[in-house]
Here is the input.
Amino acid sequence: MIFYIIKVILCTLFFFFIYVVLFEREKMHEFKRMYLLYSLVLSFVIPIVPLPLDIALPLLDRGIAHLYVGNDMMTGLSNQAGFGVDIPIEGDVIAGGKTADYTFIIKALYGIVAIALLINFMMNIIRLMYYTKKGSTFQSVDEKIVLIKEKLVPFSFGRYIYLNEEDYRNGLIDREMIVHEQAHVRQRHSLDIIFIELLIALFWFNPVLLLYRRAIKQNHEFLADDAVLKAENNITRYQNILISIISKTGSTGLASSLNYSTIKKRFIMMKRETSQRKAICRKLLSIPTLLFAVCMFSMHTGARESITNSNELSEISQTPVIPEQNEETSSADINYLSIASSTVPIETQITLEDSVYTEVDNMPEFPGGNVALFKYMAEHLIYPESAAEEGAQGHVHCRFIVNKDGSVSDVRVMQPLHTELDKESVRVLSELPKFKPGKHKGKTVRVYFTLPVRFQFQR
Here is the structure.
């Protein structure tokens, strides 16, 4: 889940950067509206789209993982292909096998902020309903006009246009302002506002959404301004009208506010022209942008599976690692393994007669997936008392073979940490239930599997 959230934030930031560079200053407002809305949707969809490519772009995953794992673990894994681990960070293994769990605090904080934002959104809706109920309403072509007593600049939401009753009856509201609000209603801009406001409430931790909201509202004003100028064709008069109302009180939180900064941008955009050729070129550039985003932020699958862990457990971090070896392990390598694992009993030796693969089409899979594997390890690992008393902690890097029948054999410690922690890691790994065996070119094969087991003692 942590990986997904980070990728969504990065994806929205990437799409918004492209918007600022290619489209923000151009007069192609209908396309900009679609770009902003669809890029938001794609930012949430792309990170969960599986991409069947075995390429170097999963380095993004590796970079994100640096945020959650120590350098000792990354040093051992950074040169391995197919690295894609959603590292859990919500707790650490402590003496007695208990876990310090901070998820409740995080979830409570998220819930409080989300509920507060949703309440604020609902209050704005209720305020509009109050205006509609208390004001005088009459039909005007495709929309309804509501006359309210509050001193607010003209604004619209849904099918309603809200005008100050006193100004309207005294003829102080110019026709251009009504045409402007009619454009908002007919183009259904309020749907965009509801969409982005709900996203912000639910994903408030993504600051890029605030930039999206500002851009969406600003583009709505550009679209409405275009509608006015097409109907009246008098830029100077319309600009003077906008300046005359800028000092009045603002509108509700769901409507765009008027200030000198936004007015200046609108004035510039009114006089700007974008050639058809330039617009087409910039639209075409959005295609490679989309392809790059898919390659960069999607889930990568291929000959080496990317592992996505559950953030419910944090005692173990795991990924299939591909050691740089031949299909048959050399005698020198056997000696190295024997030395490296001298602190633990060796159950079996590597069988040279039956090749053990380091890369296959389908990696072995634990019953129930990786979440089940982490759960099994968390339930069966016991922090040795002697290691706890000495304060020993860190990662025990183990390697084992998943046989053709799914059984685990030849569990070895590749990077010893502490005698008792090494033995406990080997004990639990040796008792793992059978995996779904790995396959290569349609045949069931034996596969090396590396699993760093994390021990962290907290006093």
The two ends are 28 Å apart (CA to CA). Residues 54-58, 65-100, 302-353 have pLDDT under 50 and may be disordered. The chain has 16 helices and eleven strands. Residues 315-455 form one domain.
